[in-house]
Amino acid sequence: MKFKDYYQALGVERGATADEIKKSYRKLAHKYHPDVSKDPAGEEKFKEVAEAYATLKDPEKRQAYDDLGRRPAGESFTPPPDWQQRFHTDEAGFEDVDLSDLFAAFGRAGHGPRPRKDPPRRGQDFEITAPVTLEQIFHGGEIEVRAELPEYDPSGLAHRVARTFRITIPKGAGDGYRLRLAGKGGPGHKGGPVGDLYVALALQPHPLYRPSGRDLYIDLPLTPWEAALGADVEIPTLAGSVTLKVKPGTQSGHKLRLARRGLTAKDGSIGDLYALVRIDVPATLSPAEHDLFVQLAALSGFNPRQHFKSGEPA
Amino acid sequence: MNTQFSEPAGQGDTRVCRIEYLAEVSGLSTDEIEDLVAIGLIAPADEAVRPPAFALCCVLTVKTARRLRDDFQLDRHGVALALTLVQRIRELQAELKALQARLG
Fold it and tell me: How far is the alpha carbon of B47 from chain A, nearest alpha carbon, in Å?
């Protein structure tokens, strides 16, 4: 089992009062809570903070934690022998146990008689996030999702068990889409039904495409002469390359539409792919290119800043 | 590690559940869930059906409400307000992302 420094997680001294611990928790919860934080690492940070607070806010758990002594965070250690008796386990029984799960079970194990009425309870639902690529969403098919989920032993102690699920991405799924795997959550208690597993799809950024609903956007860099004279250019799409006809006089910022080359929506309709025109100029010119541009500059009467003089919008 | 093959139910899942089920899986009371219904954060799948039935995806909303209640130690009004704001932020973030995609 790895040691975690709960005081460090909450940013308080070991001798902090209950009020100081509560104040620090509230401050950090506002900063890192995954439902309100902008910080991409907020969820992980909040888990640490919440875990630390769950133990330190309870005087009995805090005392037990303090009794473990002061160690560097991440150092492997074995809880004292009386803890093994408390949880009815041997030394190896703590190998796959997280310190937070140990403290969560602390109040349940070995504290007086269990309530006489112990009705069946539904197993826990779990929520995990699965990264998916645009290609996986476009083509559908199966993805593998790995998660470490707690499984409880008879004394109520959670053991982290690695599980892999192979799931099919439905058509129309996108970023934030949630899938429910019925009966893949925690086991029911005393014959209660098994919980569910919720998987939220997290779309990974793509080097070329930016999704906007079911539509996709791609930047289309053109040379000045392609934009001025028109050209046939190859555009990569998720279903293979297509040739796009760029009309003469195409301007920077123009949006060229390739119908039905986007993503499939939930209702089965297909989005479009938009190519956003950007005119790039060569960073360095060969002598011949330089001469041609000089000739063009001398010859052309084109003034894109004409409206500066007239005061009219371009 | 074992691999399990699962056919998931997505957000198009048409199955419904009762308010008692939402309370059981979220840990909220039925009164707290009724507050969320009253302000329109979740709605019955069919207004005409009695007792009201909710789409299973409402589980996620009530679980978020429970998280906010417990993690910020909120009362009933606080939960409803926080959840309203969280949902509004999510909508705005989605709009912002869509706009950023269009602008390049």
Answer: 23
Mean of the per-residue pLDDT values for chain A? 88
Number of domains in chain A: 3
A-chain CB neighbours of B82 within 8 Å are 35-36
Q: Which of A35, A195, A216 sits opposite B86 (nearest CB)?
A: A35
The rounded distance, in Å, linking the Cα atoms of A96 and A1 is: 7
Single residue among A203, A234, A253 that ends a domain in this structure? A203
Eight-class DSSP state of B87: H
Q: Give percent above pLDDT 70 in chain A.
A: 93
pLDDT in tens, A35-46: 888 787 888 899
Domain that holds residue A188: 126-203
Mutating which of B1, B3, B5, B6 best tests the A interface, going by the most A Cβ atoms within 10 A? B6
Best probe of the B interface among A35, A43, A142, A218, by most B CBs < 10 A, is A35
The distance from CA A209 to its chain's CA centroid, rounded to whole angstroms, is: 18
List, for residues B46-85, the tens digit of each pLDDT value: 888 889 999 988 998 999 999 999 999 999 889 989 999 9
pLDDT at A26 over 60: yes
Q: Considering its fold, how many domains does chain B have in total?
A: 1
Q: What is the pLDDT of residue A71?
A: 84
Q: Do both A95 and A42 map to the same domain?
A: yes
pLDDT-derived band at A58, boundaries 50, 70, 90: very high
What pLDDT does A266 receive?
Answer: 79
Which candidate from A35, A144, A217 shows the least CB-CB separation from B102? A217
- Model ipTM over 0.85: no
